[in-house]
Design a protein that fits this description.
Organism: Xenorhabdus anantnagensis
Distance between the termini: 73 Å
Strand order of the largest sheet: 15-16-17-14-13-19-20
Bound molecules: nicotinamide-adenine-dinucleotide
Pfam families: Aldedh (PF00171)
Helix content: 25-40%
Enzyme class: oxidoreductase
Number of strands: 23
Shape: globular
InterPro entries: Ald_DH/histidinol_DH, Ald_DH_C, Ald_DH_CS_CYS, Ald_DH_N, Aldehyde_DH_dom, MeMal-semiAld_DH
Mean pLDDT: 96
EC number: 1.2.1.27
Length: 503
């Protein structure tokens, strides 16, 4: 069976580890590849390769670095179909969603191509007599990226394009559940002209991660995954003196006001709740319906639309399905447990996705779209991130109760409001405790030239990913204050005993 390799120093390298993780096609349940979980020694080799490459790469002009990223961008476009098929095969998401993921990653590459402008620093002339001051935004060294299964291309591309463009070198530790994309990206970077050692991939699990969190050669750690691991990564990396950004889980709420455009809201909620089988950190999993009248209307519309959804394999000839399988049988069982607990705790199960069968794909990990009404804040299905195609409707009497619920929730990644009233929308944007807010937009993922990040226990660390925060994260500021001797032009030069800026 094909074994996914490491990519170290520009070479594809077989791991010697005897710990093997199998990779499945979630639509068929078949084993398709395997990956060895790298050892401490192998992870150290990837770090050493990046460490050795840093000296030359950090001195390469930003323009030259940008040109490599321009080339990488066109290679991504040329290879889009092949990469999207690979994503769909290992993750299960439908083809057009895989293309969407690649496009959002590509946008960060495009942003990083502007690095000569973004990394210019600042300059002030004559801060004192004959004294100038300028700042340099210098790279830090070896940066690590640890990424989740749900976006095997996009999330790594939230990180490495900016890290590389700013002159750092990189070690990526992708999810062991769908690791193939990491190697394809490494090969395309090499084809684009990236020098060997600048970008490395080490496959693995906690054993490799722990090396990345503690090795003194690693300067920064970017993590995206579940909250308990994000918290662990942030604490461990910080104790070891590293700069860290760790993005965690979510429970994204939307508030449905009585004046909302119902058709627009229902369509938006459907896509945001069930797209990618709910395996998105920005999936919309809670609707707070303000008043019974709007709740009744919404639930009726959702039930109708769910009845018309097609669930099946990610790549089809002809008409595409709306939703694919979830990642693993374990994850499927976990989602079904949540559905059971919702029923036990008294929520009204309107559509049950358990036991969903796709003809010809009986061994696939399918869970059908699931809809709960009359969910209350004390229930497990409200409190915890399910990360599956389960939408919960909570009925609230007014806007204030809705806002209170969003703000009291443990997570604060995204939040949305559906309304026709500008004042309510404005107030919501001001008062809601979430990092990304949508007004009549269900999944408000910021563009590459803004930055992505939640609030509360959806993020650990002060800087968000990509955009200007990404440039700040992967550079450190040095400010140079200089005064040149005037001995050539002036006859006298006296000693100065006060700070030069005072003169
Ligand atoms: P995960 O936390 O299980 O794994 C993420 C990464 O951490 C993987 O590379 C994995 O190998 C590694 N890892 C797992 N256990 C570890 C341990 N004990 N010690 C060290 N490293 C460990 O997450 P997942 O299941 O791959 O992804 C789903 C989660 O990611 C969801 O909670 C989702 O909300 C979150 N997510 C968040 C964002 C965001 O931007 N906030 C984006 C995508 C996904």
């Amino acid at each position: 069976m094909e074994q996914i390799k490491n990519f170290i120093g520009g070479q594809l390298v077989d791991s010697q580890s005897d710990r093997i993780s199998l990779i499945f096609n979630p639509a068929t349940g078949q084993k398709i590849r395997q990956v060895a979980l790298s050892t401490v020694h192998e992870t150290g080799q990837a770090i050493e390769s990046a460490h050795l490459a840093f000296k030359e790469w950090s001195k390469t002009s930003p323009l030259k670095r940008a040109r490599i990223l321009f080339k990488f961008k066109s290679l991504l476009e040329e290879n889009q179909d092949r990469l999207a098929r690979l994503i769909s095969e290992e993750h299960g998401k439908i083809y057009s969603d895989a293309v969407g993921e690649l496009t959002r990653g590509l946008e960060v590459v495009e942003f990083a191509c502007g690095i000569p402008h973004l990394q210019k620093g600042e300059h002030s002339a004559n801060v004192g007599m004959g004294v100038d001051s300028h700042s340099l935004m210098q790279p830090l060294g070896v940066c690590a990226g640890i990424t989740p299964f749900n976006f095997p291309a996009m999330v790594p591309m939230w990180m490495f394009p900016i890290a590389l463009a700013t002159g750092n070198t990189f070690v990526l530790k992708p999810s062991e559940k769908d690791p193939s994309l990491s190697i394809e990206l490494a090969k395309l970077l090499q084809q684009a002209g990236l020098p060997d050692g600048v970008f490395n991939v080490v496959q693995g699990d906690k054993e490799a991660v722990d090396v990345l969190l503690t090795d003194p050669r690693i300067q920064t750690v970017s993590f995206v995954g579940s909250t308990p691991i994000a918290e662990y990564v942030y604490a461990t990396a910080s104790v070891h003196g590293k700069r860290c950004q760790a993005l965690g889980g979510a429970k994204n709420h939307s508030v449905l006001m009585p004046d909302a455009d119902m058709d627009m809201a229902a369509n938006a909620i459907m896509g945001a709740a069930f797209g990618a089988a709910g395996e998105r950190c920005m999936a919309l999993s809670v609707v707070l319906a303000v008043g019974d009248e709007i709740a009744d209307k919404l639930v009726e519309k959702l039930q109708h639309q769910i009845g018309h959804m097609s669930v099946g394999i990610g790549i089809t000839e002809g008409k595409e399905n709306d939703m694919g399988p979830v990642i693993s049988p374990q994850h499927k069982a976990k989602i079904c447990d949540y559905i059971r607990s919702g029923v036990e705790q008294g929520a009204k199960l309107l559509v049950d996705g358990r036991g969903y069968q796709v003809a010809g794909y009986e061994n696939g990990y399918f869970v059908g779209p699931t809809l709960f009404d009359y969910v209350t804040p004390d229930m497990k299905i409200y409190k915890e991130e399910i990360f599956g195609p389960v939408l919960t409707v909570v009925r609230v009497p007014d806007y204030d109760t809705a806002l209170k619920l969003v703000n009291h929730h443990e997570y604060g990644n995204g939040a949305a409001i559906f309304t026709r009233d500008g004042e309510t929308a404005r107030q919501f944007s001001e008062d809601v405790q979430a990092g990304m807010v949508g007004v009549n937009i269900p999944i408000p993922v910021p563009m590459a030239f803004h930055s992505f990040g939640g609030w509360k226990r959806s993020i650990f660390g002060p800087l968000n990913v990509y955009g200007n925060d990404g440039v700040r994260f992967y550079t450190r500021m040095k400010t140079v204050t200089s005064c040149w001797p005037a001995s050539v032009r002036l006859e006298h030069h006296d000693s100065h005993f006060v700070m030069p800026t005072m003169e």
